[in-house]
Amino acid sequence: MVMKLHEYQAKDIFAEAGIPVPESRLASSVEEVMEAVEEIGYPAAIKAQVHVGGRGKAGGIKIAMDEDEARQAAEDILGMDLKGYTVDRVLVEAGVDFENELYVGITMDRSEGKPVAMVSTEGGVNIEEVAEETPEAIAREHIDPAFGLHPYQARKVVFEAGIPRDVAFDVASFLTTLYDLYESNDASDIEINPVMITSDRDIVAADAVMNIDDDALFRHDDLAAMEEDAYENDLEAKAGEYGFDYVRLSGNVGIIGNGAGLVMTTLDLVDYFGGEPANFLDIGGGAKAERVANALDMVFSDENVDSVVFNIFGGITRGDEVAKGINEALESFDEIPKPVVVRLAGTNAEEGMEILNTDLVQVEGTLEDAVQRAVKNAQEVSQ
Amino acid sequence: MSIFVDDDTRVVVQGITGGEGKFHTRQMIEYGTNVVAGTSPGKGGQDVDGIPVYDTVEEAVDEEDANASVVFVPPAFAGDAIFEALDTDLDLVVAITEGVPTQDMAKVNKRLSETDTRLIGPNCPGIITPGEAKLGILPGNIFEEGNVGLVSRSGTLTYQVVSNLTERGIGQTTAIGIGGDPIIGTSFVDALEAFENDPDTHAVVMCGEIGGEDEEQAAKYIAENMDTPVAGFIAGRTAPPGKRMGHAGAIVSGSGTGTAESKISALNDAGVPVGDTPNEVADHIEDFL
């Protein structure tokens, strides 16, 4: 998974590394926005700081030419709901008088197992559309992770992209700095769209996306401390506290299992048998009773859930531990909130079946039967 | 026959004194795996259940003639452990560790390309040749000797499909979990090629999932190079774009690449039937045999 940085955080990191960014202030109230534009002047961009792509289209970015427009933009954007996120801060940024917009990015090309640098003159628009429709408009250069991006490679990809010659060396050195940041921060991707070429023929990073490989956060305390509102909803935040891989979906059949592939398969089967999955929840390998009980607590607390299927195929996870956890969780209720179907297989499954309190759960022997029963339960409850 | 591991595989367990390493060393030995050594820097000279512990992999290779390793080292040190294994020219390295930083794996991947060593994983359950050897954490009791090869990105999904096969009396030559990370040592194509060249493997199960293009590349390989019949399964049909489903590699990107549909249609085009359920995969395999 990745840890997303906000634009203002990424720009702080860029600025420290010597990459030019527009003058800006972070503001969390209309008053603060007005103070910021006072200092920065007009035109000014007011930009929502939320982890949402396509902020501009969704109304999260506005350009203000004067005080009235700035106040209006601040009132409109602060507190607005942007694809499920509430905007509580905006970046107030000096407008840039630009002539061209470029795209510059570095990401991991998983099919090559190498980072790749990308440069295009088609900046300022949806780069995924460009990649799809005119892939030749994006120049690419793979990077040997043992040596990093050689300066000649940075120049090569910049020339290939057709960057105007008077700023080509600037963009190349910009790219070299970006790769250094990518490597030293364990980024999974860095993207600047657009890089603006100003009327003075300077280059400026007008936007900034930087995501960090969260498996590497153990060696980046400074970055880990920057994590903010990572979760889309309270349930996902709760899953984060419990340490579960959890994704909330829109259906009503709650799903708990072990191992990403098998949990995905359980979701697919719920769909295949006519139900709708409410979530993906992987308790991981080797889960003990408490973790199992936490998983049930998670799924029960989702009001969309009408029925639950618990599917465990034990390798390092033991059936007896799972059964103990299910009993503990369910015995604490006077009435079971939602019907639970359990299927246990693999390591210590037989021991688990002996322990399991079958007054509280429905037991099925196969994955298919368990899923079908849970789907049926959900249909009965929701009728 | 089998692929990659058999009776002659001599295993060194990297991280043998840790909780996971110790537990699974016992399980591997119980299964009949020839575990000849373990490593744990600073604990050379000790032993775990009679298995000698060395400070370095090099010593384990020199003293005990190990030719394969299993890595149970925590994620922060796993990249280093794999480098150490690669530098001793082992035939096979199986990295179980989950959560290895991707950039560490990019560097490992580069070094790997300069060696003759095969790396399986990381973030995988390992590999088993039923009746001969198990390197990893797969539950040995669900497997049976037979003629079906199995390669999968996921651990527990592998167990599910294997049990569907074993219940029908269909055994396995070798089963490999290649791992759910974006950068892994052994791809579907590598495993399929080995199964194609194994005369005892009469059919192959391939369990893929959303994310990346490995399944599409595998489909191309199957169409062009394989006579052995393959049946497939793809997990993640209901996964919404942009949401990572547990595995770091299991994500449908915003632009729609890595979808289950694209993988299923690539496999179907290559003549590979794809089951709607794990049990249907076993149906297809039964038809092949």
From TrEMBL, chain B:
Heterotetramer of two alpha and two beta subunits. The active site is at H247 (tele-phosphohistidine intermediate). The gene is sucD. Pathway: Carbohydrate metabolism; tricarboxylic acid cycle; succinate from succinyl-CoA (ligase route): step 1/1. Keywords: Ligase, Nucleotide-binding, Tricarboxylic acid cycle. It is an enzyme of class 6 (ligase). This is Succinate--CoA ligase [ADP-forming] subunit alpha. Succinyl-CoA synthetase functions in the citric acid cycle (TCA), coupling the hydrolysis of succinyl-CoA to the synthesis of either ATP or GTP and thus represents the only step of substrate-level phosphorylation in the TCA. The alpha subunit of the enzyme binds the substrates coenzyme A and phosphate, while succinate binding and nucleotide specificity is provided by the beta subunit.
